[in-house]
Design brief:
Blueprint lengths: L12 E4 L3 H12 L5 E4 L2 H11 L3 E5 L7 H11 L5 E6 L3 H9 L4 E5 L3 H31 L10 H14 L5 E4 L6 H11 L7 E5 L5 H9 L16 H4 L3 E6 L9 H10 L1 E2 L8 E2 L2 E7 L3 H6 L5 H7 L2 E4 L9 H17 L5 E2 L1 H9 L5 H15 L4 E2 L1 H4 L28 H23 L4 H8 L3 H10 L4
Length: about 475
């Protein structure tokens, strides 16, 4: 076998064997293939190594001087149900190996151990481990990745953000992305991860404002089996899933006060306990946070911990709102038109000069996300080959800073009544819903749960509406 070069972030292989000569032989065989190896001589040392090194594979003898391989197997599965465990046993004790496999061991090696057989088995275990982890991460990311706009634009302000992003990516420091809702903060976080030395590791995102307070701690830190009613199995939190990668904490400004000190400790020490657990867990995570709130003002109002703010804003990057880069608006609009025409299997559409002018004149309070939603609706509504102002549904939304207000005008003059009855009704109803939602959020001081109660709709239905209308 040829020696492979392995990524420095690859987790190690844990060898649990009390005989020094065999343990050394196994370690040298694995290291010759570029693997990192951690050693333990008994069950107690193995349990400590599980917590400190987060191994990718465990290779354990069934017979140990203190404890045994079954205890190591159970500890490994308790630590992570997906962790592959290979057991070693004497030739005459195959029945023990079969019993271990029934308890969850991936495979067994009969002694004396053949190094080539060992390496093949380890490679198979690593492949299984990578597949399980990637499937879990992909499930987390799939919904968030769909429909996310690419970073499009030539404005100098956007180029400044790109330069800052490249500088931050080369380091491992915490980055705070600041900007209004809809500016694409998660997209910039993904770009930072892709540019960093952690690009081969997982990117795990969590929206701190979209999860009820009583569930957020378990989402972040995980929980132990039996930690609370309904906790039938151990759950890994986002911090553990992001081990050796990047954790994106979106809307960090909405973090409840009770969780702020726990997040601060996790950032400073890279250490935490699962809910219901007593053992501190160590992780290697790069944190990128984002907020649409003025955290300095929140600190001044004693609504946010000052020490947490300073820990988050080691490298702040401010993303400009869409209205501050008007020349990028037509470029973004054409990008979204092309994309939605492909998705909808429609003939290519063009943007009329009048529609382009209306897009430029509008203030875009929902930024790129609102523009994306606007163009998607227009692509659906357009019957011919050209998108006109009536397809944009912007005229109902009232004047923008570049459009003077006529105090005497009837409110009906601001409503787009073009098209069919169904189209006009749909536009009007949609605008009414959007304004009512914004009013409820204002009355609830930004508390989404309270706003949903005021509107007498479920929290899930409310957050779906927020996404549909580009509101946060």
């Amino acid at each position: 076998m040829s020696v492979r070069s392995r990524h420095s972030a690859d987790p190690p292989i844990l060898i649990v064997e009390d005989k020094d000569s065999l343990r050394t032989m196994l370690r040298l065989a694995l290291e010759a293939q570029g693997h990192i190896v951690v050693e333990a001589r008994d069950q107690r040392e193995a349990e400590a190594a599980l917590l400190s090194s987060h191994p990718a594979v465990v290779l354990s003898d069934l017979r140990l001087p203190a404890g045994d391989g079954f205890g190591v197997l159970r500890a490994a599965k308790e630590f992570d149900p997906q962790l592959p465990v290979i057991v070693m046993t004497a030739f005459g004790s195959i029945q023990d190996a079969v019993a271990a496999m029934k308890e969850g061991a991936l495979d067994f090696l009969a002694k004396p151990v053949d190094p080539d057989h060992l390496l093949l088995m380890v490679e198979r275990a690593l492949a299984q481990r990578r597949l399980a982890t990637e499937n879990l991460i992909l499930k987390e990311e799939l919904a968030q990745r769909r429909g996310a706009p690419q970073i499009v634009g030539d404005d100098p302000k956007l180029k400044q953000v790109s330069v800052a992003l490249h500088r931050a990516a080369a380091t491992d420091m915490t980055v705070l992305l600041e900007g209004e809702s809809g500016t694409g903060k998660e997209l910039f976080a993904r770009a930072l991860h892709a540019l960093s030395p952690r690009a081969d590791g997982p990117f795990v995102a969590i929206n701190c404002a979209a999860i009820p307070e009583n569930l957020l701690e378990t989402e972040l830190f995980g929980h132990e089996k039996g930690a609370f009613t309904g906790a039938a199995a151990r759950k890994l939190g986002k911090f553990e899933l992001a081990h050796r990668g990047t954790l994106f904490l979106d809307e960090i400004g909405d973090l409840p006060p009770t969780l702020q000190p726990k997040i601060l400790r996790a950032l400073e020490e890279k250490r935490f306990e699962r809910v219901g657990g007593l053992t501190p867990l160590q992780v290697d995570v790069r944190v990128v946070a984002a907020t649409n709130r003025n955290l300095k003002a929140a600190v001044a109002a004693r609504q946010y911990r000052e020490d947490l703010y300073f820990r988050l804003s080691v490298f702040p990057i401010v993303i400009p709102p869409l209205r501050d880069r008007p020349d990028d608006i037509p470029m973004l609009a054409r990008y979204f038109i092309d994309r939605f025409c492909r998705d909808l299997k429609k003939k290519p559409l063009v943007l009329s000069p009048a529609a382009e002018e209306e897009l430029r004149a509008y203030a875009w309070p929902g930024n790129v996300r609102e523009l994306q939603n606007c163009i998607e609706r227009a692509a659906i509504l357009t019957e011919g080959e050209t998108i006109h102002p009536r397809h944009l549904s912007l005229s109902f939304r009232g004047p923008t800073p570049s459009m003077p207000v006529d105090e005497e005008a009837s409110p009906w003059s601001k409503i787009d009544l073009s098209g069919t009855l169904a189209e006009a009704s749909r536009r009007t109803l949609g605008e009414m819903e959007r304004r009512k939602i914004e009013q409820a959020l204002k009355e609830a001081a930004g508390n989404r749960g309270r706003a949903a109660e005021l509107l007498q709709v479920s929290y899930k239905a409310f957050t779906t509406k927020l996404k549909d209308y580009g509101i946060e």
